[in-house]
Amino acid sequence: xxxxxxxxxxxxxxxxxNYRDMFPSSGADLTAVAALADVAxxxxxxxxxxxxxxxxxxLAEFRVGHYKEAVNxxxxxxxxxxxxxxxxxxxxxxxxxxxxxxxxxxxxxLAECNKVIEEKLPxxxxxxxxxxxxxxxxxxxxxxxxxxxxxxxxxxxxASALAQIFQLRGSGSIKEQRK
Length: 179
Known about the structure:
With 179 residues, this protein is mostly helical. Helices cover 67% and strands 0% of the residues.
């Protein structure tokens, strides 16, 4: 994901109440975040990385409670060639469909998110998440949030996975990307 998108997604993701126990609240104004998403999808509609923008828009719409719009944007993002927007969009779609009381569709979207993460993303156990390690964290956190919402239970290894990531980062196995 492009660095400026990371700065946009992190506040939108981490301002969610479920994550306030793990991270300090960003204090992000979700209306402003949604406006940034509008700019990204309108100005970046023809960009090769438009699925990243579409995912950001889906997440912003979900955060402000516009669940039908979140599903529409997530569907667009999931059609692109990039794996992180596919995984992220599937998680957002699952949560939005759950909120719309479309439980079967929500479970199908969560299963798709799990499939993309398990089959296409780097494995934490290998000790190297690559240059896109932040995107891996976002995808994992969104999947955990979707699972918690739909199944009513947090994944048992969520906290230990985050601890491993920060340990790997401290050891130099995860390299900070500078641009």
